[in-house]
Amino acid sequence: MFTRPPRILVTGFSVFPGAPVNPTEALAGILNDEPPAGVEAFRADVLAVEYATIADRLSAIGREFLPDIAIHFGLARECSGFRLERVARNSHDGARPDQSGALPSATRVCAGPDRLASTLPLDLIAKRLEGAGLPVEWSDDAGGYLCNTVFTLSAAHACDGLRPVMAGFVHVPPLKEAEPDHPAAMAIDDLVAGAHIVIAACIDEWNVRA
């Protein structure tokens, strides 16, 4: 099916109310400095936590980069490891104010079905993370914040150029370096190692389909 290596996009988020340090912002910077092998192109971007601009930002990235695989990372303070999100909800139900204090202007995220499944190889990702001794948990609700919004927009192919064959979302806990007293905080080295495992699993799945 595929005749070339994949183009992979990874996204993280900037800080937002209640999260003065976002581990996925640091993750994106490190991954750009340490891109994976076996890809045609790789890009990691940090997204602003703003409802009003997120679709346009993803469209700009999509047009510029045309990713085949989109792996989105976000912070969830309550999770205890790499939380693999199975489903995006096409709804802003339960939305909280973004970093500018704004709420979404619509009840739905975009046109399309009410729920969209992740198309990342989640079982393979979980197996490899667990094999590396990294904590894994599962979720069928990506929340009511920008994490779910980005997951939905990407999975629904709702942004220009952003039509990935594989798309999905992974939540991570706070950084141990920033919040040493948080019971599930993760060291930056473990976060980066886990992200590389997620990316490699997606590359391998792409190659299986080749």
From TrEMBL:
Arranged from A to Z, the UniProt key words for this protein are: Cytoplasm, Hydrolase, Protease, Thiol protease
Signal peptide annotation: none
Asked whether the keyword Cytoplasm is assigned, the reply is: yes
List where this protein forms a coiled coil.
Answer: none
Keyword Phosphoprotein appears in the UniProt entry: no
Instruction: Extract the InterPro entries matched here.
Output: Peptidase_C15, Peptidase_C15-like, Peptidase_C15-like_sf
Family (UniProt): Belongs to the peptidase C15 family.
Listed PANTHER family:
PROTEASE FAMILY C15 PYROGLUTAMYL-PEPTIDASE I-RELATED, PYROGLUTAMYL-PEPTIDASE I
What is the protein's given name?
Answer: Pyrrolidone-carboxylate peptidase
Q: What is the lineage of its organism?
A: Bacteria, Pseudomonadati, Pseudomonadota, Alphaproteobacteria, Hyphomicrobiales
